[in-house]
Description:
This protein is of the alpha+beta class. It has nine helices and nine strands. It folds into two domains: 91 residues, 2-Layer Sandwich (Phosphorylase Kinase, domain 1), CATH 3.30.200; 172 residues.
Amino acid sequence: MMLSAPSARAVDLRVESVDNVLDHVERSLQVELDRDTVVRKRRSVGARTDRRTWIRIERRGLDKIGVQGWNGTECAARLEDIAQPVWRGCVVWQDADEPVMWRADETELLPSAPIGNAILSEDPKLPDAWWQVFNASLDALAAQDTQRVATPDTVTITQALVTEAVRSIAPTADFDTTVEWWVPAHADLNWANMTAPTFSLFDWEDWGNAPRGLDSASLWGSSLAVPALANRVRHERRHDFESRDGMLMTLFACSKILGPEAHPQDPRLEPARRMADQVIAELHAG
């Protein structure tokens, strides 16, 4: 019988004290963190160091660390032809008091600032050169090989998960939800994890094989509050969106926006619903 790991308590690192964690990282990696540059997110903390690098620290419950581990940034270092920060090293340790592990990855500094929040409300007006490197990096990623499986939102993506998501917004649909192509994906592609004006893609902890079009659909979903930007994403990644798997991933992205936790004032609701209806009709038509 397999024993399941105990669940960790929910913690928001934006409000939780992390001083002891930062101290531990400094001692372990023999580095000094610039406390004035600390960026706090729900489950990660980052800061610049005195050797002109960046350290990202993540807290993850043991129940969220699967067979493949959670060394995504380290494993992404071997990927070729992708614009990303160079990985330098890491330290991993288990929390003494909770069923939790901590991981700190050190990488080169980003070449430019992150574009914005995960979900944008204004058009960043990215130049054509940016989109060229963006496309080249995503195409290069999809062409590589890995045994990893993507974990968007720390949940391992499976055929069953895709089917459940599609059925949640198309309960009476009778089209096949089977994914044909599984390819490497970043699995957390949004505007907070890319830089501009120089393109770089970071935060690789969830990458792995996923249905073709997951990244494109995820970024489109993050862009829906800015219609021109959402249309640009669909245009640039049209070979993904026009594929059958890309249509399923569009519904997958829509399910996250239209789900039971949707905020009634979310400006993405109406365009997500319209697109879901359109894709469902196309899949029915076959």
